[in-house]
């Protein structure tokens, strides 16, 4: 049974030391008089013994520092605790615009010092946050109408074949939604500037990363009021990057020996009001309205035109050609001509089915 002794000279009955059976003294209560402090003054080495030895710093640290341990009993002020990798985080919607209910989840490793986070609620979102691990996003981030700004790249990794990013709109009008927008906010936009780009990457059999295909937006004409754009397609071809086509505002171009193929179908050509005119380095095939009928023509680089749908208004086989140098147009009724040849030779050249 412990024996309790009052300290001589004190009038406070609560200040007592109890004697244990081993002979050591047990301090039960230390009570400070009103408006005074209780001072614990370690020696010059800063060593305090509380169950085991702790060396405490003898002077205060800097503003915002934490009291951290070396793991072997030495305490010091430092900034190596949480947060390590978050950067400057404030409650302002312009610098950390996470809305009013951003769904931050359980924080482990270090207690969150929350003065600068603004309004943070819910219990899901960041699944783990510690001083020694990379924060992992898991759950919902309610960005509302604010922005998420990344100085570097924002990377999403998926270990399954499910959607890596799913954007859903519940708006029920006929207006397009959801909308994915790429904007290059250039201070000096110019013709031929490249804009947003989608890359399709994979690996080759040497375990090397390869961009196999790209889709790119491009400015054709940046002039105010007469802007034109391009969608450009590129593919890896024989190990090298190759622009295979451009869908311009005025034409669809197949480039760098990319062929045109229609498998199991047919191609249709809308009629032009007149011949398109010659272009250096190009020949053309097109449809043109002739006597209220769509007819097929070819045009060489010089602008000479030949009709390749060989029928006239009477349904007879006709050869048509217009020469831009002489200005002459030739129309030959091939059926009549061959009939005359047959009459002269006695041979038959036309077979009707």
Q: What report would you give on this structure?
A:
By secondary structure, this protein is mostly beta strands. Among the domains are: 1-29, no CATH class; 102-143, no CATH class; 194-254, no CATH class; 271-345. It has one helix and 20 strands. The strands form six sheets. Strands 15-16-17-18-19-20 form a six-stranded mixed β-sheet. Strand 12 and strand 13 form a beta hairpin.
Task: Give structural attributes.
mainly beta; 6-stranded mixed β-sheet; 353 residues
What level of helicity do the residues show?
A: under 10%
Query: How many strand segments?
Result: 20
The major beta sheet can be summarized as: 6 strands, mixed
Low-confidence stretches: 99-140
Helices and strands, with pairings:
Layout (H helix, E strand, L loop, with lengths): L2 E4 L9 E4 L5 E3 L19 E4 L1 E4 L10 E4 L5 E4 L46 E4 L7 E3 L55 E10 L5 E13 L6 E10 L2 E9 L3 E3 L16 E2 L11 E7 L2 E7 L5 E3 L10 E5 L6 E5 H12 L8
Parallel strand pairs: 15-16
Antiparallel strand pairs: 1-2, 2-3, 4-5, 6-7, 8-9, 10-11, 11-12, 12-13, 13-14, 16-17, 17-18, 18-19, 19-20
